[in-house]
Amino acid sequence: MVSYVTRRVLLAIPVVLVASFLLFVFVRATFDPTARLREGRGGVAAVEHERERLGLDRPIVVQYGDWLGDFARGDWGESERTRADVFTTIRRAMWYTLQLIFWGVLLAAIIAVIVGVLSAIKQYSTLDHTFTALAFVGLALPPFFFGLMAIEFLGIRPKEWFDLSEPVFYSVGLHSADRTGFDLDYLRHLALPVLTLTVQIIAGWSRYQRAAMLDVMSADYIRTARAKGVPRRRVIWRHGLRNALIPLVTVMALDIGVLFGGVIVTETIFSVPGMGRLFFDALTAGDATMLTAWTVVTALFIVAFNLLADVVYGWLDPRIRLS
Amino acid sequence: MSPDDELRRADPALGDRTEQTGFGPTELIPAATATLESDREPDGRGRGTGRSQLARFRRRFLRHRLAVTAVVVLVGLAVVCFGASWFAPYDPKTQDLLLGPVGPSGSHWFGTDDLGRDQLSRLLYAGRISLGIGFAVALLSTLLGTVVGALAGYFGRATDRTLMWVTDLFLVVPELAILAMALKYFGQANWTIMAVLAGLFWMYAARVVRAQVLALKEHEFIEAARAAGASPLRIVVRHILPNAIGPIIVTATLAVAGAIIAESTLSFLGFGVQPPDTSWGNMLANAEGSIGTDQAYLLYFPGLAILLTVLAVNFLGDGLRDAFDPRSGRR
Known about the structure:
The complex is a heterodimer. By secondary structure, chain A is an all-alpha fold.
């Protein structure tokens, strides 16, 4: 098991390094930190001076090396937009985003497994057809539109219709003013953003789970178990579900990237000060320092989650581990 | 080994996971299983009826009422949007500041915005861009992806490993982030948006085609062709690709859906189609402030347009998939 994990980690390192290099070069090429100076009165000399000060005139590989060294030591620079320390900003933002992603994955996994398994066991029933229809709609809805509609119909309209003093589900941030911690207020804030983030994923995962479950149920060992007289429920639980969960883990890992992209939209709509909003603000303002750090940190997290999924996958399926 | 390969090895029945979220239903069984279209098909109606593949395919497809409806809807939408100059009741750019924002009414079926522009007309003209980008991206990305995927699948080894590596590289950064940054770099003209989106989407097609080619490569008829002295190019083009056309077309269809969602999301965030051009995503961005107000209708229509289009495309893709390989579908 240890060697399996080590292997996966070692394979991931070059990917991250190459990706970070490409991203570094790309952000440098897209955004010019001296842009503001160019429009100023300093003239060419001032621009050149700034370029030298920032080290922009050196070969890009050298610049990357410097940046990498700084990054590894925790010096991620200063945001060009807010002049705040990038490391602290990202750490704070990541905390919010991880909350969304954690609850999102939890919710999505539970719902998807339940829906998928039910659909598979009762294939072609009305329930199955309903879930299928919902999944189709879920996959066709752009998440940002779903978010807007959710705010509209689950937040604001019910307040009018039922004459409430406050919306049932909040749509700004994760906590009301000076409240923290895990309480009803938190849940009311979480509900809509998490739902928006996971709508497409739930739809996709539940279809996947249904297909995987159907496949597993038609396998020989299931037939053997039934033939032996094992009660249907036990067959589904101990043999069917266990094996059908394995591919879901892979899918979940592959979708982490989607989740990190999804927060960009979700956090912007729901004003959550997380990584997504950070990206949006940074890109709109052309904040190169922040963008470089943001992309590399996100890549690291995605790789980490993928590794985690690989480990879980290896643990669940001994055939993989022992290959 | 990537999770994909391990997945495939662990349970061959599950095949290749070709769909990423946002692409459509993840019915993943069919994609990698080779679908040889022989003339004898166990369709239960007697053997060797001598029907052409096309006729059989058409018959299977027409049995899917949803897919057929989807085609009708899509064609209708395309006609109405690309022919907006005939169908739109007003000029989308004409403002009527005295009128201001009114809800749906007899003279303005979808209402007007606060500049007094007729929403229905705006919607139709915006549809040109949204649908146009969607179709173009699908076409471009499928072509590119097919070429690369076929090369990787057939020649294997270095080409294959490079392809896999490149696609893995793009997996570590969120798509939306890549797209948004790329558009900042390359600019946000409509053609550029098309090119950038295609520049990401080709990877999905490449994966599907690669899987198909790998599966088909081992069949005897390929070996026979090789023995007869056919060049690799001829083998791929004349023998392998026609048998892989099913999943390729399905992927192309789903790419339309993905592209439309991607473009609308990017435009909504302000990273995509820029004013004065309109797309459905653009319209939603403008309307964001009207949540909870009387002008909320400004949100409903463009959003529903996107939903309807993508839904239709997904149904179409599903119908096509079943028509190409009836053994695979589990409806």
